[in-house]
């Protein structure tokens, strides 16, 4: 969600075009909502230049002005992300490009080849015009390829970091003509987890590749995502070693996440082995434990460390019981050195297939990946920290667990509101919360946890009928919670009572009050450290699970269209021939339009319609093999009048001019966003790709630009989209009229 920027335009301002360098001079803007001065935020300083085509950081990159995508011999790569300048600055600050080979990274790629049984694994960093490999297994002599052919560049695009999965490149519009697919190394399968730095920038990805189509389940992808975090820690650790802490804070935009991890040893263990063999250790593990890397790799944990205070057999019996539950736990271990010294360690075991190694920057796992499967349950990431020696002979109090006993991580902090709901891997996250896989009474569900700071000291009163005394029923919160936390409650109340086949159903909801930093009551949604001591409200929603991902991913994969090089006498001309699957577009558009018409009929405005908020679920009713479901009502409104004023809005690329300039919010905002979705499906492109948020606002409001449908799209379909994206909201059709127009299109087809 973004704060609204209210701007005003004039004909004189819109004509301020500098033909010499192809940029637009952005004037100082005044005015605001209802024409009142003093409320406006300046779009840019008078001397600022707003580029029309690629961001400045893409200078020198082979690039298509119409697609904003790097190009090589007629093949178009991933669009340039809007934050490319800042992202590339972060990459350069890491000082890793063109560095020497390093066994720390080679250990990881070799291990991934073994775990996933793939021939190729790469640590890939996306530079301006290339992707460079810090470590690569299975590609002898290859250290880089062009950015245009990079699979990893696509991991830079999603709003929030998530794993990219390509099960068969020959069936994916983005990659089927890629030279790395049609030629060596003949990629068919790809899975890449983005490398996310402590300041939120993505450097590239850690990926595994196969020459045959295949699938990885959600647990396996979580293992990959956790190893991506290990790679980033190693990269950031090198920066911190080279620079003083204060200088690092000021010059590298907060790239100090690894500073807190220097003393934290990490190992990966396989609990399928009798003594839990060690598969991976980082340098910090060697410093903490005193064992060298060679002494640790491949060795059983309990051959290197002793279990204090009990027999080995008794402890292992209890440890194996905990592992079967597949939960996080801690145990104390002891090391006695030959010279008579003793060292005690706290080891924190976390399932590599379900728990994120770093909760502050989790990586989402696409919803279409299978879960649960149990194929990676044996892998645990273990953090090792030294602990002050204490007497092991102290008497135990009645009911006290022995010191060697495994202790569940989190305690009450990980308590769920419902005993019949099990949480799984993270699917994704947004401004206010996260969405997890889940199982409810044996059925797959999605569990959404919305985390909101309270505006006042008001706390919901516990409902006696709630499953947990910290939680209250979601339907009766209007009089008990402060206004800011009502956003989560409104989402629950809206969707629980909605009954439409193309709207994601909410099965149940509840809320609880939490205080960040309060021992034993810390929220599972993990507020940042700056929020410690503040009061929060969590809203928990159990939602219908959609197993086919979202509409944005389907558009990217080419479900609705194809682009092929045109040939003249058998040779490629460089131009792309576009074909649109009108039937698939019409069926999908009809489902979305029907859901919106239903919402508008009961005066509910969605407010943030975008491809990421349209989920797909399996269906056999037509050749698409999916059905659309409108989701995410976090910015929805109940309209009691034709239009209201607002200071917030959703996805900028899908917002109409009147909302961006005056904050006017009405049902026609959803209509405009629907038109953008229709354009995406018809073209297979992302709207305003590569432009930063303020550049999009400038193009839509000052330059009065619009998204245009290509001539290959049937006029009946493109005219519907063009009308929906009309600059004047009065000229846009209602969603009921859109449904009628799409029905006529079906007859025409």
From TrEMBL:
- Give residue ranges for domain PAS: 251-307
Alphabetized SUPFAM superfamilies for the sequence: GAF domain-like (SSF55781), Protein kinase-like (PK-like) (SSF56112), PYP-like sensor domain (PAS domain) (SSF55785)
Name listed for the protein in its UniProt record: Kinase-like protein
Q: Which GO terms describe its molecular function?
A: ATP binding; photoreceptor activity; protein kinase activity
Matching entries from CDD domains are given as: PAS
* Binding, ATP: 448
**Which InterPro entries does its entry note?**
GAF, GAF-like_dom_sf, Kinase-like_dom_sf, PAS, PAS-like_dom_sf, Prot_kinase_dom, Protein_kinase_ATP_BS, Ser-Thr/Tyr_kinase_cat_dom
Keyword line: ATP-binding, Chromophore, Nucleotide-binding, Photoreceptor protein, Receptor, Sensory transduction
Note the Gene3D superfamilies from the entry: 3.30.450.40, PAS domain, Phosphorylase Kinase, domain 1, Transferase(Phosphotransferase) domain 1
Pfam families in alphabetical order? GAF (PF01590), PAS_9 (PF13426), PK_Tyr_Ser-Thr (PF07714)
Q: What domain of life?
A: Eukaryota
Indicate the segments forming the Protein kinase domain, all copies: 421-745
């Amino acid at each position: 969600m973004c704060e609204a920027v209210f701007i005003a335009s004039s004909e004189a301002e819109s004509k301020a075009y500098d033909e010499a360098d192809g940029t637009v001079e952005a004037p100082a803007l005044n005015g605001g909502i209802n024409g009142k001065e003093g409320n406006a935020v300046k779009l840019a300083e008078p001397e600022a230049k707003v580029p029309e085509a690629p961001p400045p950081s893409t200078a020198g990159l082979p690039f298509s002005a119409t697609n904003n995508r790097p190009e090589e011999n007629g093949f178009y790569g991933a669009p340039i992300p809007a934050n490319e300048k800042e992202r590339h600055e972060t990459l350069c600050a890491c000082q890793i490009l063109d560095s020497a080979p390093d066994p720390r990274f080679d250990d990881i790629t070799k291990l991934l080849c073994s775990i996933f049984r793939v021939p190729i694994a790469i640590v890939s960093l996306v530079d301006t015009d290339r992707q460079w490999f810090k470590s690569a297994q299975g590609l002898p002599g290859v250290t880089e390829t062009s950015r245009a052919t990079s699979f990893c560049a696509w991991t830079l695009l999603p709003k929030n970091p998530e794993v990219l999965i390509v099960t068969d490149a020959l069936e994916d519009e983005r990659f089927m003509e890629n030279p790395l697919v049609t030629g060596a190394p003949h990629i068919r399968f790809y899975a890449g987890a983005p490398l996310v730095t402590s300041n939120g920038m993505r450097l590239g990805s850690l990926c595994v590749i196969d020459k045959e189509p295949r699938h990885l389940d959600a647990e396996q992808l979580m293992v990959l995502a956790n190893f991506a975090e290990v790679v980033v820690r190693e990269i950031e650790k090198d920066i911190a070693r080279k620079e003083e802490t204060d200088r690092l804070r000021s010059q590298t935009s907060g790239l100090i996440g690894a500073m807190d991890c220097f003393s934290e040893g990490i190992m990966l263990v396989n609990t399928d082995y009798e003594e839990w063999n060690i598969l991976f250790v980082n340098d910090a593990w060697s410093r903490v434990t005193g064992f060298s890397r060679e002494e640790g790799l491949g060795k059983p944990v309990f051959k290197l460390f002793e279990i204090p205070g009990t027999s080995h057999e008794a402890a292992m019996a209890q440890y194996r019981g905990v592992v079967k539950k597949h939960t996080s736990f801690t145990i104390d271990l002891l090391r006695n050195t030959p010279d008579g010294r003793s060292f005690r360690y706290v080891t924190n075991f976390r399932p590599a297939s379900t728990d994120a190694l770093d909760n502050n920057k989790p990586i989402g796992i696409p919803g279409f990946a299978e879960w649960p499967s149990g194929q990676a349950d044996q892998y645990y990431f273990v953090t090792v920290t030294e602990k002050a020696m204490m007497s092991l002979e102290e008497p135990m109090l009645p009911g006290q667990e022995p010191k060697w006993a495994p202790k569940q991580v989190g305690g009450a902090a990980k308590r769920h509101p419902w005993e019949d709901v099990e949480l799984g891997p993270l699917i994704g996250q947004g401004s206010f919360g996260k969405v997890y896989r889940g199982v409810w009474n044996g059925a797959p569900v999605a569990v959404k946890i919305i985390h909101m700071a309270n505006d006042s000291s008001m706390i919901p009163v516990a409902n006696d009928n709630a499953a947990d005394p910290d939680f209250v029923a979601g339907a009766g919160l209007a009089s008990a919670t402060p206004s800011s936390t009502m956003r989560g409650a409104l989402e629950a109340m809206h969707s629980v009572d909605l009954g439409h086949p193309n709207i994601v159903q909410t099965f149940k909801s509840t809320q609880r009050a939490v205080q960040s930093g309060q021992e034993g009551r810390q929220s599972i949604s993990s507020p940042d450290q700056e929020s410690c001591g503040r009061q929060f409200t969590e809203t928990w929603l159990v939602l219908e699970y959609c197993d086919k991902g979202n509409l944005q991913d389907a558009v990217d994969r080419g479900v609705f269209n194809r682009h092929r090089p045109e040939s003249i006498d058998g040779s490629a001309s460089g131009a792309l021939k576009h074909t649109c699957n009108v039937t698939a577009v019409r069926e999908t558009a009809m489902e979305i339009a029907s859901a919106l018409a239903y919402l508008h009929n009961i005066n509910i405005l969605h407010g943030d319609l975008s491809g990421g908020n349209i989920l797909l679920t399996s269906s056999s009713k037509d050749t698409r093999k999916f059905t659309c479901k409108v989701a995410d009502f976090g910015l929805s409104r109940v309209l009691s009048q034709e239009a209201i004023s607002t200071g917030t809005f959703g996805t900028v690329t899908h917002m109409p001019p009147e909302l961006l300039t005056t904050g006017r919010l009405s049902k026609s905002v959803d209509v405009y966003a629907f038109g953008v979705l229709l354009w995406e499906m018809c073209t297979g492109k992302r709207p305003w790709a590569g432009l930063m948020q303020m550049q999009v606002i400038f193009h839509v409001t000052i330059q009065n630009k619009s998204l245009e449908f290509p001539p290959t799209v049937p006029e009946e379909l493109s005219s519907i989209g063009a009308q929906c994206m009309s600059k004047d909201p009065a000229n846009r059709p209602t969603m009921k009229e859109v449904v009628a127009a799409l029905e006529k299109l079906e007859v025409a087809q």
